Amino acid sequence: MGKAKAERRLSENEARAVARTIRVSPQKLNLVAQMIRGKKVDAALADLTFSRKRIAETVKKTLESAIANAENNHDLDVDSLVVAEAYVGKSITMKRFHARGRGRASRVEKPFSHLTIVVREIAAIEEAA
């Protein structure tokens, strides 16, 4: 019998990729995600390739995964894809301690983040407008 197939949450001209538990704070990851929002995928890949941020490589891999999902799973044209959404969520935070003077300790928090990238195919009519 089994469970009914879940409804597709995205529209027919969209594909997404999710990277979970990335070892960087959400604030720092959002700076890189903000850099690619609304751009065509080839321009976004170029920006991520030459970015000096450490996390740009992980964001680039996630974007390439979203492009591959669009091409292989949803038969979308790669040349007409744009980064429709790139959003960041909080994940776990590891708590560690740092030894200080006089027998005391300070708390060190090591945050993790989630990244979701949605690419959308834009029609040729929309590009001309």
TrEMBL record:
PROSITE patterns: RIBOSOMAL_L22. One of its GO terms (biological process) is translation. SUPFAM superfamilies: Ribosomal protein L22. Keywords: Ribonucleoprotein, Ribosomal protein, RNA-binding, rRNA-binding. One of its GO terms (cellular component) is cytosolic large ribosomal subunit. Pfam families: Ribosomal_L22. Gene3D superfamilies: Ribosomal protein L22/L17 (3.90.470.10). One of its GO terms (molecular function) is structural constituent of ribosome. It comes from the Bacteria. Transmembrane segments: none annotated. The keyword Ribonucleoprotein applies. Belongs to the universal ribosomal protein uL22 family. Part of the 50S ribosomal subunit. HAMAP family: Ribosomal_uL22_B. This protein binds specifically to 23S rRNA; its binding is stimulated by other ribosomal proteins, e.g., L4, L17, and L20. It is important during the early stages of 50S assembly. It makes multiple contacts with different domains of the 23S rRNA in the assembled 50S subunit and ribosome. This is Large ribosomal subunit protein uL22. It comes from Aurantimonas manganoxydans (strain ATCC BAA-1229 / DSM 21871 / SI85-9A1). The lineage of its organism: Bacteria, Pseudomonadati, Pseudomonadota, Alphaproteobacteria, Hyphomicrobiales. The gene is rplV.
